[in-house]
Amino acid sequence: METMQTLAERLPQSLSGRIALLAATAHIVLYVGRAIHNLYFSPLSRVPGPFWSRISEFPHSYNFMRGDGVPYVKSIHDRYGPVVRIAPNRISYSTPTGFRTIYGKREHIKDPEMYIAPPSGAIGIMEADEVNHTRIRKYLGPAFSVKALEEQEGLIQGYVDQFIEGLRQRKNEMVDIDSWLDWTLYDMIGKLALDFDFENTINARYHPRVNNMFTNFKLMGLFYAASAYPWFYTFVQQSLKMMFARRSENYNFIQDVVKNRVRSQEKGKTDLWAYVLEHANPGDLVEKELETTGWQIVIAGAETTSTVLSGAVYLLSVNPGRTQRLVKELRKRFKSEKQISFDSVAKIPYLIAVLEETLRFYPPAAFGVSRVVTQVEGSEIDKVWLPQGTRISASQYCVFRSQDNFAKPDEFVPERWLDDHDEVFENDNHDALMPFSYGKRNCIGRSLAIVQMRLILARLLWNFDVELCDQSRDWIEQRSFLGWEKPPLYVRLTDRHHRS
Ligand code: HEM
Prior knowledge:
Elements: H1 2-10, H2 15-41, H3 51-55, H4 58-65, H5 69-80, E1 83-87, E2 90-93, H6 98-103, E3 108-110, H7 130-140, H8 146-168, E4 174-176, H9 177-194, H10 200-203, H11 214-226, H12 230-239, H13 241-264, H14 272-279, H15 287-317, H16 320-333, H17 342-345, H18 349-361, E5 371-373, E6 379-381, E7 384-386, E8 391-394, H19 396-400, H20 446-463, E9 464-468, E10 480-481, E11 483-484, E12 490-495
Parallel strand pairs: 2-8
Antiparallel strand pairs: 1-2, 3-5, 4-12, 5-8, 6-7, 9-12, 10-11
Helix pairs in contact: 4-5, 4-11, 8-9, 8-20, 9-15, 13-15, 15-18, 15-20
The structure holds protoporphyrin IX containing FE.
The site of protoporphyrin IX containing FE has 24 residues, from α15 and α20.
Cofactor: heme
GO molecular function: heme binding; iron ion binding; monooxygenase activity; oxidoreductase activity, acting on paired donors, with incorporation or reduction of molecular oxygen
Keywords: Heme, Iron, Metal-binding, Monooxygenase, Oxidoreductase
């Protein structure tokens, strides 16, 4: 009796104090109730996952916020299997068929949490709804066709000339090859997507408007991580004002370039807009949408490809036997640099194998891009039924590094992609490698990226011997926010044609 009295005396006496106490109690009851529901009564309760991830968004948000989201999801797969619950309403797949079943269905729409509105508010290809997306893909199609690629070869080769020449001037010095690759890829995409020359490579520095483009990936990653907590979302928005300002400056610049280019109506060039203007039904073109799409193509089209190339340079440098094999094949096959072309690089199986293995080992879009189940009746994905509203993803890193899909998944073995591979790799599931995703919203720039990667790597290794500097021994240990946060990759290059 006395204890009850003491307790009552301790309770807040004022009305506001009592309301606060009531609100806090209601909050706790709600939280516990929701946790019990998530654990035992949710339709997702049968999907395995760590206790805290099944009851709270916090571990998912926290790890993604820190840039550890990819290893966090991988560790859950390693422990609980190929279909796991990474947050109360998020299911991750590392099954070989996950890409097809998740990204192949139109009813699994893009997760709005993953996309922050472009600075102008005008939508582009990335966040367009299904109807608008079909229209955009249709008018962009001719610009990414085989014919367009063939016509663009001269332009692309020209930027590789600048890249090689820039490196030749710095032979025997320590160079950050990651920046050089970034500069070259931004130069190429600038000319192809904007008809604008950023002149990064020629000036050996980032043009101010493509410097910090990684900011976009980082912002998207941070917002995705914070999306479960509205108050935190606002906090992130407030504290990242500088990043937003930079993003808007880049956007405004590209917006103006695209506007002028499209208004000029100039055909007969080999940039994206020449193909669009020539083939599209004018009624399908919406100026603001073209501007946002141009900006998104620049973001999507340079950093990804340069990441794979930096990854290949690093992985080859720490695997000297494999470098020797590739270098030998390239230098035997090509007597002069002029022979290295889109066509001829497609006939070097070991070069192709090295790039496939780099995409497997170090995929630029390592993160599982999230989709949402929209069907009222739910959706069955790889024998697991998921209700409407479930967020689903297949992380490339988790699929490609799964023992179930590839033997010795944590070893860099390009030979696994060759016909005469060791029998250990006999059961590797090649169909599980989908670095460009799958379905109607897969990568529109896939063919371009493939020729760029083959050409640049072939010409780099044909010209130079590459030695990794000690500062970059652990380069591959990186955080990831939608893309990998790459530090400089220091190498020393020896020019095999001009050794002095
Ligand atoms: C190795 C290089 C590349 C990789 C690994 C890659 C990967 C991807 C992936 C996984 C997606 C799907 C994203 C999603 O579902 O939300 C995607 C979409 C996209 N990519 Fe790439 N990409 C690469 C290069 C390029 C290039 C060179 C371009 C353009 C020049 C490009 C432009 C795009 C665009 C515009 C989309 C959105 C497509 C749509 O929504 O219809 N990418 N890419």
